[in-house]
Each structure stands twice: as structure tokens, then as C-alpha cells.
Design brief:
Length: 378
């Protein structure tokens, strides 16, 4: 007996798909609604820390994900200027425990494809081009779901995993909104020079951070973090040109990245945001998880990991309990809110130290402390 037998999930990002896999595997009827007409994922590559990899194992997806990604250990810090001199080789904490690599890079579309395949194989019904526009509570306590203005069906629970600008969050009256942190990021997906075997970050140049992370034998993603600006109208051609110009201070593998951009690799731009819903993430039988509940700059690459942990903890409780009651919600919030808050606060602090040019800040200590915290399962 599970606490719910029929659930609607809104959003096919990592949080929604992870929740769909776990509930469908437990025999719960799952409808997943995605506003987009197909699984399209912007943003090239993603860095997944050990605690995210541990969740993939719990979902039964780890073998597929490991085969499609690029696991690595450590982090290299380089300086701008000729030869891109390495200034430090940092070890990292195995935040997923000893059984998983400390970090893995991965193409985002591959991650989305694998999770979708597992959700469908487990029995979740995925509805693309289906935007949730309203919710209603019926007399028996179920939640009615409205898709593109048309009533669709009623559910025991609705999980809003609909991202940073969540519609579900607004529909249940939570007025927390994401704010800009003052930083913007250019990202591109390029070929991997053989010398790049782990994430490498450049501090101290004209950008707040320049860096790249391998995502497979042949690919990696590269990024430049700058002061947030209104870049949203730029053409694809201008985007690549800006990334080429802004990366001129960086040598070494950046020469290969610029060559790929010259040859047609595309660049995209977005701002970093921050928010955390303080207190309960549910209102009755509707709950938000993932970026709907919290967002942060990727300064420690924990955003997706936190959404995955939200999904795992929530579904573990829904499957283990036989009632959707106050004690279930209390345990969910106790296990999730302080941990996600710690990640958001540390990620924002790391970005702010860079904006302030604070060179005495103990960034390494803060990163290490969070990694140790994450090593204890959620
Ligand atoms: C620049 C940048 C770099 C990042 N790098 C990393 C990293 O390296 N590592 C890491 O762990 N995290 C990283 N993150 C964070 C990570 O990308 C997010 O935390 C994660 O992707 C959020 O997943 P989600 O499932 O909560 O939401 P999303 O992936 O945003 O999915 C939400 C889905 O809901 C759909 N949707 C929205 N509204 C509706 C509606 N009304 N009806 C139906 N569907 C709807 C959307 O179309 C979307 O598909 C980064 C974030 C940014 C901005």
C-alpha cells in the first residue's frame, strides 16, 4: 500500500522524471505533463556530483548514465595568459560515497533521454505539448488538473517539477520568486581536446570564471561567467562572436574552443538566479520540488543534484507510507529544506565573493563543507 495511487507530475526535467521513475516502479499510476512538444534541453552539458550519481543508482539508471558520461576526479585551477598555467590541482570529496566517482560530466540531452526512457519503461505516461494552466481541489480531496485550459483528470497528488519559473508554485499561492544574482553565463558545447580530463577553471582574468568540463570521450562544454547583462536579443552569430572575443585572455584549450566556435558551434546565454521556498513546499495535495522550490548559481554544481534528492526523498516517503498526512510532509520538509537551503546559501555566497573581489574568503573551506554534508545521504 502506498500513500497515493494516482499522481500527476508537471515537468520533464531531472526532478520530474526521477519522481516519475520511482512512483511508476512502485505501481503508482503516473501522468507526466510537459509543456514542450519534445524533450529539448538547452545548455549543452552538466556537471553531476557524487550525490546525484547515487540518486541515479537508486533510480536504476546509473549503468546507462555512467556509460553516456565522463567520470573524473579532481579539479584543475588555471590562470589566464600564455600557456594557461596550472596553479592548483584540487582533490574533491566523493559526495556520493566510495561507490561513485566524485564527479561526472554529461551532455544534457543524453541525461534527459536516459531518464525519459526509464520513466516510460517503468510505466509512466508522458504527455508532451501539455501545459498545466490550472488546478482545482474536489470534494473528495483529489486535485483536478487543467491542461491548456481543458480539465484533464483528477489525482491523489500533483508534483510541480516545472522549473525555476514554476506555474504550479504560483497556482498554490507561494509567492517566492527567483532573483538575479548579478552574474550571467555563456555556454557552448564543443569537441574535447585530449588534454582535458577533468573540470578546469580559470580565475583572475576579465571574466568572473572561465572553464570547461568533459562530457564524453569526444565532447565537453565550456563557459564564461560575466556580469549579468541584457544579452537576450543577440543572434546566434553574435553569441558565438561574443564568446570568442570574451575568451581571448584564456589560452591552452581555449584555442580549441574558439576554433570550434569559429566553425559553427553555438553559444547560449542565461542569468544565474537564486531563491528558496522557506517553510512548506506543499499546499495540501500539491507539492513543488527541484528548481520550482529552489535555485542557485552553479558555483558548486549542485542544482540538479538537489532536485534529484527532492524527488528521491519524496517518492521514498510516498511509497513507504500508507497515508499522505502531516507526518509525511513533516519528514519530507525536515529532510529537504535545511539541506537545499545550505546549498543555495553556499552557492550564492561563492558567487558574491567573486562579484565583491574578495580574495581572502575561504571558498575552498565552504565548498569542502558542503561536499561533506552531501556525502551523508539526504
Ligand atoms: C547556467 C546553469 C548551469 C547549471 N549547471 C549545473 C551543473 O553543472 N550541475 C547541476 O547539478 N546543476 C546545474 N544547474 C542547475 C540545473 O540545471 C537545474 O537545477 C535542474 O536542471 C533543474 O531541474 P528541474 O527538473 O527542477 O527543472 P527543469 O529542468 O527546468 O524542468 C522543468 C520542466 O517543466 C516544464 N514546464 C514548465 N512549466 C510547465 C507547465 N506549466 N506545464 C508543463 N510543463 C511545464 C519545462 O518545459 C521544463 O521541461 C545549472 C543551472 C544553470 C542556470
Amino acid at each position: 500500500m502506498t500513500a497515493v495511487s494516482k499522481v500527476a507530475i508537471v515537468g520533464s526535467g531531472v526532478a520530474g522524471l526521477a519522481a516519475a521513475i520511482q512512483l511508476a516502479r512502485a505501481g503508482v499510476a503516473v501522468d507526466l505533463f510537459e509543456a514542450k512538444s519534445e524533450l529539448s534541453v538547452l545548455g549543452s552539458g552538466i556537471t553531476l556530483q557524487g550525490n546525484a550519481l547515487r540518486v541515479f543508482d537508486a533510480l536504476g539508471a546509473w549503468d546507462d548514465i555512467r556509460a553516456a558520461g565522463y567520470p573524473f576526479v579532481g579539479l584543475t585551477l588555471r590562470a589566464p595568459g600564455p600557456g594557461a598555467p596550472a596553479v592548483a590541482e584540487l582533490p574533491d570529496v566523493k559526495s556520493g560515497g566510495p561507490d561513485y566517482p566524485s564527479t561526472m560530466g554529461m551532455p544534457r540531452p543524453e541525461l534527459a533521454r536516459i531518464l525519459l526512457e526509464h520513466a516510460v519503461a517503468a510505466g509512466a505516461v508522458v504527455h508532451f505539448a501539455s501545459r498545466i494552466t490550472d488546478l482545482s481541489t474536489d470534494e473528495e480531496g483529489g486535485v483536478g488538473v487543467v491542461i491548456d485550459g481543458q480539465p484533464f483528470d483528477r489525482y491523489d497528488l500533483v508534483i510541480g517539477a516545472d522549473g525555476v519559473n514554476s506555474t504550479v508554485r504560483g497556482l498554490i499561492g507561494i509567492d517566492t520568486k527567483p532573483e538575479s544574482t548579478g552574474m550571467g553565463i555563456w555556454r557552448t558545447f564543443v569537441s574535447r581536446p585530449a588534454s582535458v580530463e577533468r573540470s578546469e577553471l580559470y580565475y583572475g582574468g576579465p571574466m568572473y570564471i572561465a572553464g570547461y568540463t568533459p562530457t564524453s570521450e569526444n565532447t565537453m562544454y565550456a563557459f564564461l561567467v560575466e556580469k549579468a547583462q541584457d544579452r537576450f536579443g543577440v543572434t546566434d552569430e553574435d553569441a558565438a562572436r561574443i564568446m570568442i572575443e570574451e575568451s581571448r585572455a584564456y589560452d591552452g584549450p581555449w584555442n580549441d574552443i574558439r576554433a570550434d566556435l569559429e566553425a559553427g558551434a553555438t553559444a547560449n546565454y542565461t542569468w544565474f538566479t537564486k531563491h528558496i521556498v522557506d517553510g512548506a513546499w506543499n499546499r495540501g495535495r500539491v507539492v513543488i520540488i527541484g528548481d520550482a522550490a529552489h535555485s542557485c548559481p552553479p558555483t558548486i554544481a549542485q542544482g540538479a543534484a538537489q532536485g534529484l534528492e527532492d524527488a528521491l526523498v519524496l517518492t521514498e516517503l510516498l511509497v513507504a507510507r500508507d497515508a499522505l498526512d502531516d507526518s509525511l510532509w513533516a519528514e519530507f520538509h525536515e529532510r529537504r529544506v535545511p539541506r537545499a537551503t545550505a546549498v543555495v546559501e553556499a552557492s550564492v555566497q561563492l558567487g558574491q565573493w567573486q562579484i565583491d573581489g574578495d580574495r581572502d574568503a575561504d571558498a575552498g573551506g565552504l565548498i569542502f563543507g558542503i561536499a561533506q554534508k552531501m556525502a551523508v545521504p539526504a
